[in-house]
Amino acid sequence: MKRIFVVGCPRSGTTLAQSLISSHSDLVTLPETHFFDQVKPTGRLRGLLNLPSSEADRKLQRLAKRYGLERTRAFLPSLSIEHAVTRFVRLLDQYARFENCSGWLEKTPIHLHHVDVIQKTVPNPHFVHVLRYGEDTIASLFDVTQRNPEAWGGARHLEDCIGRWVDDVKLSLSYTNLSNHTIIRYSTMVEWPEMVCQEVWGFTGMPSENLKTDQFRDASKKAEPSKAPWQAVDQDVDQKQEKFQNVLTDKQRRKVLDRLEVEVRKEGIMSGETGLSRSVGKEA
């Protein structure tokens, strides 16, 4: 069974990556689960006993009900964090088999911060990290939290958005030496989507096949069933690049660029050839 996790900074293009990669006829996908962010113990006692949060079991119950799997066992409490993860993986494995597929793809950006736990508890995982220009990601994250604060735990300050992008990029780059991790660039994904799909499918051991528009649409619907997914993903490609100019003030743009310049110049963190800024350390 192929088990693929798409991770990265929020608003960096992880939804587009999910829709493209999971368009493979032998892969299934599902909406963001946030499972590994919710499975961690809440409270000192649960931590000492290695018990998952109660929300983790509720998540398992909802997944089982949604896909008609493990109806009885999913309602029983998990005995440990490892037990909860085993049940999570088993549910997704069963979902893939039910769809006659040999793999599944889960995309929750914040799972980037739980990679170490996933590697220890999920058999043979593959990680796809999505990186996007700092200007675009930061402006988009700032904008969406201002417009939809209730969905993001409150509106974010620009400094918080800058810090989140910097921290997440550093974390993604720290895994580049591991064979089960790969990095894809948003700009490359937009310009050469089929090439990116072929590379990722090969990386995960999936057979090559042509990227078909109808499969891409179907995968988008599975990823974001509560929205108009094709339209949302399509607009995301066109509009994020403009937000740096249209959403931020001159002063805010200068603040972002000054911080990016500091980070790009730091040796061993983000070299110019990494191409993570439109204005600083441009790609050759």
Polypeptide structure, described:
The chain contains 13 helices and 5 strands. It is an alpha/beta fold. Helix 1 (14-21) crosses helix 11, helix 4 runs parallel beside helix 5 (81-98) and helix 8 runs parallel beside helix 13.
List keywords for this structure.
284 residues, alpha/beta, five-stranded parallel β-sheet, globular
List the total number of helices. 13
* Terminus-to-terminus distance: 39 Å
Strand content: 5-15%
Catalogue the unreliable spans: 226-236, 267-274
TL;DR of this structure?
By secondary structure, the chain is of the alpha/beta class. It is built from 13 helices and five strands.
SSE order and pairing:
Blueprint: E1 2-8, H1 14-21, E2 27-30, H2 35-38, H3 44-49, H4 54-67, H5 81-98, E3 103-107, H6 115-121, E4 125-131, H7 134-147, H8 158-173, E5 181-185, H9 186-191, H10 193-204, H11 213-223, H12 229-246, H13 250-265
Parallel strand pairs: 1-3, 1-4, 2-3, 4-5
Helix pairs in contact: 1-11, 4-5, 7-8, 7-12, 8-13
